User: Which sequence fits this backbone?
């Protein structure tokens, strides 16, 4: 179904005070402040998503970019509804729950059933159908925090694939312990997937304290009944946009240095860490470098619908397939706003000599040389797969998953000093690459 | 109106596994764990409140108390409904909001109006009617944390009295910045009051990040419109209970050493810090001392409906008015579960010699001597006002108001080691007073 949602752009007079966006070291902070305050949550495909596109275009023009444009793409629109999860008698309590992105809703009266708990997705996959059939699956995976947020990759499979594996064994629904590292009582959303030929069952996350509470209840009464009600909608296909802007290169304008972030956010926080900070950083980096007349073109890409599965990035790669040979470099900022501690690369072996020289300029900021295995960032990984050289300025993610994908991802969680350090690093990396003639593919 | 809510007690088979409550140093923790997991939130007057009464009676009996009984009292029942607060165009965002306890709801369609912001209640009181009339008042008081939680008393007036002061100036509703010290995105509830002859306007709190967000929006657009919808109910009078239990004194059974906490909680967290920890502590203290055959009677009082305005405590004081002369001492634990750092007293000057000797026994736990100005705790302050000697084992409240009265007040916020230190201190204080002949009134 193609939706008839047509937002009239003229209606979006952002109506803010004429601001002077100062070209200073706090520009990244002021941009993320403006985005989160004036637009706030901007789930891909919503009216707020489109307001954020207008916001980005206006700000990029104010900042003096040489070209600013948008590129539309189609996407499946998903809409969160109210979610309610209650434990039946004798406990009679509600748990803090949120739908996973993409999940179907429940029937109007909800789904009530006994529960079967697993510690990991792997345990679920190995379970007997008789133990899962007609139950609500509960995956109670615990996490530990570290600077790289490494646990996330280990347990996020339960979020992405849990519904498919549970449905294969006949489960009625799945709830997971939030893929987050905080014991604050927020449920952590994020995208989940279905598979053709497997029943689509509702999928939701409960907060870490609620997962602990539920597991204690199950010790007392393994037969307890949970009731889940969710009324999400999947209305169909809508249009979203990547927003693109350039500082034209003074000497080699056809060579594109792409720096990026994603403009969309989940809908419960204001998307400050994920990824308002990145948006502010790459906009500020290019705007500040304009004064230096960089030799190569610096292209800022603010991807749409990263959260739904890199949809904007895939659209960008498809549309620009013929020009990717001109993309001499790409990088994305999408891991919050913690201090950068390492410079990872994903480029040709010969280029590493250049990269090591670049790292020496980053070293005074406390940034070490990392391995040559960088993805470049979630969206940029799509470009890397097509041969574009990349790097990742690795941010300290120790507390990133305390806030990520929760209502608690708000501006106050950004440390302005750490964001200044990020901006300095982005300026150095982008300047050095834009003013060099190095071929990072070799 | 007297409500027809009659909960059939026989229906409350708590149906938990037969547990052995071990008489050990973790007994307080296991009790608060049991209360928060098996009962959870227990707003006064609700079905869960009554389940908690049954829970307390059963546990007190299991613990071997000599007498266990309940004392009913009447109370006004208030029921939270859904609350929604949105900022109109151009911002189009929802803010995290919760009703203050006792607040009326809004009309079904809500209240939409421009906003007038004040930094403090005092600023509101001094405002011109023309600036407030027909607007939504926003009190944006900031807090700072400290070990005594001292700021709470300074700003909580905005919560308790803000609606009256705003209504006197013709406001349509009031929202306040949460009376809490955390930047987690939880709104902080708590009791508010109306005054006869002043219109009853809806009152709500928004989280600290939302208050910051709103104040930034007001800088950009002072004319912005807020819409508040709340459907709370005030159905009328119901019965709640104080639960009381005694270890009969071996030598002076008529002399009552009263130790207490409150059994009710707000409805959004599980009431672990406020005041499940206190419930666990005083139940465990008396149960453990039973083995030592204390000379005076130790009476545990679990007050009902503290949160609604010390309603259970007032009922207790009224019912026992004639016997208060036999109450040789009273104290309450109701400030979370942080380590105890000071022993404050509220007793006769001569008794301070005894108190200083008692403090020497507490000193190895890191507990200093405090002033003779203790309230004894919120509920016990009612008894102090009628001449009962009191003391307060002062808990470290540095992070208490991070969690207090929010959905985030859950078991995981209690440090079992700190609770053990609390239990040791309560055992020492209660033992020394129960085994002495000192007259603390003198």
Assistant:
């Amino acid at each position: 179904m193609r939706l008839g949602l047509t937002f009239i752009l003229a209606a979006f007079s952002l109506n803010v005070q004429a601001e002077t966006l100062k070209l200073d070291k706090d520009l990244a902070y002021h941009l993320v402040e403006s985005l989160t305050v004036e637009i706030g949550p901007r789930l891909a495909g919503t009216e707020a998503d489109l307001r954020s596109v207008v916001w980005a275009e206006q700000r990029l023009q104010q900042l003096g970019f040489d070209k600013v444009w948008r590129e539309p793409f189609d996407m499946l629109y998903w809409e969160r509804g109210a979610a309610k999860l209650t434990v039946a008698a004798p406990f009679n309590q509600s748990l803090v729950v949120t739908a996973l992105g993409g999940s179907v809703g429940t029937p109007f009266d909800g789904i009530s059933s006994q529960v079967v708990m697993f510690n990991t997705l792997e345990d679920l996959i190995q379970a007997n159908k008789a133990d899962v059939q007609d139950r609500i699956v509960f995956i109670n995976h615990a996490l530990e925090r570290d600077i790289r947020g490494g646990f996330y990759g280990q347990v996020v499979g339960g979020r992405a694939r849990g519904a498919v594996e549970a449905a294969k064994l006949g489960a009625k629904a799945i709830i997971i312990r939030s893929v987050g590292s905080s014991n604050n009582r927020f449920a952590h959303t994020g995208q989940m997937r279905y598979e053709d030929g497997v029943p689509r069952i509702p999928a939701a996350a409960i907060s870490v304290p609620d997962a602990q509470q539920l597991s204690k209840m199950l010790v007392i009464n393994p037969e307890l009944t949970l009731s889940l009600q969710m009324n999400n909608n999947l209305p169909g296909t809508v249009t979203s946009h990547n927003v693109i802007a350039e500082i034209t290169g003074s000497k080699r304008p056809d060579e594109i240095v792409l720096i990026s972030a994603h403009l969309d956010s989940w809908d419960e926080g204001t998307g400050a860490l994920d990824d308002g900070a990145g948006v502010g950083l790459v906009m500020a980096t290019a705007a500040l470098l304009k004064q230096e007349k960089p030799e190569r073109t610096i292209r800022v890409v603010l991807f749409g619908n990263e959260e739904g599965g890199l949809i904007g990035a895939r659209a960008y790669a498809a549309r620009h397939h013929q020009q990717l040979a001109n993309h001499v470099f790409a990088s994305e900022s999408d891991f919050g706003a913690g201090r950068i501690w390492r410079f990872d690369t994903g480029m040709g072996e010969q280029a590493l000599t250049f990269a090591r020289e670049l790292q020496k300029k980053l070293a005074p900021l406390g940034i070490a040389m990392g391995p040559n295995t960088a993805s470049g960032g979630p969206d940029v990984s799509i470009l890397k797969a097509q041969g574009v050289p990349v790097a990742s300025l690795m941010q300290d993610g120790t507390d990133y998953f305390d806030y990520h994908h929760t209502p608690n991802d708000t501006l106050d969680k950004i440390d302005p000093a750490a964001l200044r350090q990020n901006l300095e690093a982005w300026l150095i990396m982008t300047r050095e690459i834009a003013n060099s003639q190095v071929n990072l593919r070799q």
Summary: Chain A has two domains: 9-78+236-434, 81-231.
